[in-house]
Amino acid sequence: MPLPETKPAAAEPAPEKQEGIKDPAPNVTAVPAAPKGGAESVKPGQPAGTAEEQPEIVHEDPGELKQCLAELEQIGAKVMKIDPIPEDNGCGIEAPVKVDEVLPGLPLGGATMRCETALGLAQWLKNTVQPALAVAKPGRKLSGLVPGTTFACRLRNNAATGMISEHARGNAFDVAAFKLDDGETIEMKPREEDHTMEGAFQLAATAGACLYFTTVLAPGSDAAHETHLHVDVKEREHGYRICDFQ
């Protein structure tokens, strides 16, 4: 007996996508452009990103740390080791120091950073900034710094997303201005068209900073650095440095 023909089963309609649920995206991390300002910074203790996105904080070599502290003492800096700042998604300092005076008679207000950062500041100020100032302003001496950001748990350029800032690891320091012993202040600002001695002083100071820091971003290097000089000791492969000075 012939069997009845079997009709093909009707294809089931594809399920509708639920509103608000997106297709899975490939495992790619986008790097946003640096904002021109206005983004809120990440507060200390607030996660700055996932563990996959943010590298670990710097782990200090005991011998190198001891040598760094000894060099700071020899140069006349007043620093004090303080308790570790616990790691929190890339923020933190394993062996922080509080810097009361970066050079004899040159206060830093107890700024917190890594020893390596403090030593870079001390050497730069002593060997580059003060000699340049002596030429630009004969008879004048540094009496202080107007700092920008020192240690702060935030992302780069105060962005809402992206990579952790070197400020969050104690690697970075921002200089907004230099104070002189006569009460004058030399502000750090874009000076492309400044052909005065102050302009020459800033150029010499920022260029010389690249001998002691692996990152130097002078005022005007980008929108996030219009009013201060950023320096940091971020380690890169093959000793690579970023020197953006004017």
What does it look like?
The chain is α+β, with helices and mostly antiparallel strands and 246 residues long. The protein has a domain at 115-244: Muramoyl-pentapeptide Carboxypeptidase, domain 2, CATH 3.30.1380. Helix content is 20%, strand content 23%. Strands 6, 7, 8, 9, 10 and 11 form a 6-stranded mixed β-sheet that branches. It has a 3-stranded antiparallel β-sheet with strand order 1-4-5, with helices on one face. A two-stranded antiparallel ribbon has the order 2-3. A hairpin with a 2-residue loop joins strand 2 and strand 3 (91-93). Helix 1 packs parallel to helix 2 (115-136) and helix 2 (115-136) packs antiparallel against helix 3 (197-209). The radius of gyration is 25 Å and the shape is globular.
User: How many individual helices?
Assistant: 3
Write the CATH fold name of the domain at 115-244.
Muramoyl-pentapeptide Carboxypeptidase, domain 2
Mean pLDDT figure = 79
Give helix and strand order, one letter per element, not per position. Answer: HEEEEEHEEEHEEE
CATH level-two architecture of the domain at 115-244: 2-Layer Sandwich
- Kindly state the number of beta strands: 11
How far is the N terminus from the C terminus? 96 Å
